[in-house]
Amino acid sequence: EVQLVESGGGLVQPGGSLKLSCAASGFTFSDSAIHWVRQASGKGLEWVGRITEKIHNYGTAFGASVKGRFIMSRDDSKNMAYLQMSSLETEDTAVYFCARAIPGTTFVEYWGQGTLVTVSS
Amino acid sequence: DIQMTQSPSSVSASVGDRVTITCRASQGVRNSLAWHQQKPGKAPRLLIFSASRLQSGVPSRFSGSGSETDFTLTISSLQPEDFATYYCQQSATVPITFGQGTRLEIK
Question: Considering only alpha carbons, which residue of chain B is nearest residue A108?
Answer without folding.
Answer: B46
